[in-house]
Amino acid sequence: MADYVCFPVPHRAMTREYPHIFPFNDTFEAELAALDETCGFTAFLEEYLVFPPKGPQPPSPTSDGECDMFDTLTSGMYFLNRCFNTYHITTGCPYAVDPITNPPDGVHLRSGVTAPAGRSRPGINPGPRALTSSPRVIERLNKTIIVSGQLDLTLPSNGTLLAIQNMTWNGVMGFQSAPADPFFVPYVAAAIDGEPPNFDVWSLAGTGLMGKLRAERGLTFVDVFLAGHQLPQWQPAAAFRQLEYALPRVESMSGWRTGRL
């Protein structure tokens, strides 16, 4: 879903949605507003991120040259937060230690899957997959899950939804209603023993209402609260719940049930 439309269009809207995270001064705010008006990002978002979709979208506004909203706003953020992370916008200094780094580049993993050592993976820029391969995958599997983290600036949730609303699968374009159903990660103690929820302060994974979702015609989109780009890293219990649904161990991601069907 990393089509071109996902990248530049929602960025200005995110800075206005989270002003306490992007606390720009009035001068820089005016610069971003002028850039947005000139390049048409928010206008495009407001016109085409509707449910049901109004029809095929025209090419999205370009982010080249003077319309490079992403580089402009991130450059401003690095003055305010030297450890700003576009994969998780609330991250601050110091940088978190990451002993795993990039797992696909690990020597042991490459050896285990017989991948060539010492070879870099090329960048991914495959073109408009939402209009070609993605619908075929959804129709053949009839159970596809697309997940986005609400705090991801690199691939914002609204950008992914824009791509979905421009995609036709199983004979209909886009979602007919906006994601609004609860994405719920059960409190394990309550689900297993019938006891009151166990609010374990030492637990490293959140539970309860963790996002919102929409499921139509074999496709489920989940927008996860407090999650960044690498969802299992930021919300591991939410990622595990999605795996339970995919296997399938549970019928719904909105209920309390855990375990095998």
TrEMBL record:
Family to which the UniProt record says this protein belongs:
Belongs to the peptidase S10 family.
Q: What biological process terms from GO does the record include?
A: proteolysis
Under what name is this protein listed? Carboxypeptidase
Cite the Pfam families for this sequence: Peptidase_S10
A GO molecular function annotation here is: serine-type carboxypeptidase activity
Q: Which residues form a coiled coil?
A: none
Q: Which organism is it from?
A: Mycena venus
Q: Which UniProt key words apply to this protein?
A: Carboxypeptidase, Glycoprotein, Hydrolase, Protease
**Which InterPro entries does UniProt cross-reference here?**
AB_hydrolase_fold, Peptidase_S10
